[in-house]
Design goal:
The complex is a heterodimer of chains A (254) and B (285). Chain A has 254 residues and is of the alpha/beta class. Chain A has one domain: P-loop containing nucleotide triphosphate hydrolases (Rossmann fold, 3-Layer(aba) Sandwich), CATH 3.40.50.300. In chain A, the strands form two sheets. Chain A has a six-stranded mixed beta sheet with strand order 6-7-8-3-9-10, with helices on both faces. In chain A, strands 2-1-4-5 form a four-stranded antiparallel beta sheet, covered by helices on one side. In chain A, a hairpin with a 2-residue loop joins strand 9 and strand 10. The longest helix of chain B is centred in the N-terminal third of the chain and has 38 residues. The chains are: A alpha/beta (254), B mainly alpha (285).
Amino acid sequence: MSKKNYKLEAKDLNAYYGSFHALKNINIAMEEKAVTAFIGPSGCGKSTFLRTLNRMNDYIEGFRVEGDILLDGRDIYAKDVRVDELRKEVGMVFQKPNPFPKTIFENVVYGLKIQGLKDKRVLAETAEKSLRQTALWDEVKDKLDKSALALSGGQQQRLCIARALAISPSVILMDEPTSALDPISTAKIEELIFKLKNDYTIVIVTHNMQQAGRVSDYTAFFYMGELVEFAKTRTMFTSPKHERTQNYITGRFG
Amino acid sequence: MTNAEKNRLKDKAFQVFGVFCTFIGLVILAIFLIDILIEGLARIDWDFITSLPSRRASRAGILTAWAGTLWILVLTSVIAFPLGIAAGVYLEEYSKKTRLANFLEVNIANLAGVPSIIYGLLGMEMFGRVMGLGGSILAGALTLSLLVLPIIIVTTREAIKAVPRSIRDASYALGASKWQTTWNQVLPASFGGILTGVILALSRAVGEAAPLIVIGALAYVPFVPTSPTDEFTVLPIQIFNWTSRPQADFLVNAAAAIIILLLITFILNGIAVYLRNKWQKRVKW
């Protein structure tokens, strides 16, 4: 494993909310163009860790990190890293679909527009490409100028994914992306994740054990701010090394 | 009487009391309106609105007064709107929760409670004397801006606070800066609320007489102001002046002017309500 090129790595990562030690000595290396799932009970630090990967925690007062997070070998918490540049590289999809109260089109091209892109043709092309990638194009192509809030929850979430893809990141972080969706919409998103991993490195936080089993190549189990176990998903689900992992994935606590 | 009967009686009693409390304000307003309308409505005609003030009640009009009110309204909004919104945005989105921020916050709330005549004294000294604006429209507008700033700041903050965290997250996650997020997402989403607050603040400013009297707005201005440095009067001052005259005819004039002033404030409040409803329908999460 040591020769591999890792997309994302955390080295001796510690994170604190004020005096609360939220992440303890995390060491993990995530492979490029693979799906890594973070699982663990509520409050275990998995979402906190996900949000350190694109520095979304920067806005939380009292939050600080120690240690390194490397994206393509470069420390993203280094002084010369600009957060907006980082987030072009590392996109994010949230727990609850959060489209802007704007048109579908405006939602998809928002990321490009704030970069200063004005060319209408490029914007339109990117919008179509991103919406096709998320299998949303056929459903919305006739109502691009309608409010995104009129879409169903599942469609909204796929729109949020399309919006993230439009600025062509290489990593997509997903924070429980299906927890607010019905089973059919969930299936569509999972299908999408499967397709997207050909081109993107995906990190997904999930509460749903079956989902982790279905979509991920690697799984990391967090407990009380520690990374308990990290392995190939199949290995972890068939023969976990730690008893706690075993108990969690068999549903004995959580 | 059984306990159940007592409870039912209490329940009934409170209902009656509640209806009384609810209607007391309305009834008083209605009495006031009817009284004013009976007295003043007949006096309102085109001449009354387009005539300059005069020593004779029958020839006096409110042209200069409502022109002054309009000037004040426009200038005050031009001054207070950007200042108040920018301050509100800063306090809500940018400032860290430091002791200084707390201090600012408490004092802005305090400012909202300062009597308007105190603002008048401040305005007279600062704008009238130090800046040399005298009793001009600009001095009046600046003074009233100070008066309504706290209201605008507080409502701006409330409106911004109501924008869900998730919208900001979405914007930040796409690489937007704080300013881009504020400008493209937070402000549009909260604009209805902000505008409502601004208009309500303005409708308060329109009704103020005391601070303007202090800075030296005149009751008798025989010309329509044409620039911000002109002297001026406003409707409340005109009304105040007319009611203090002994002749009964001037009281009729005052009643008529009150109707016009009420019309202006009702229109402003109407716009505020309309905007609030329109935006609430458009922005849903």
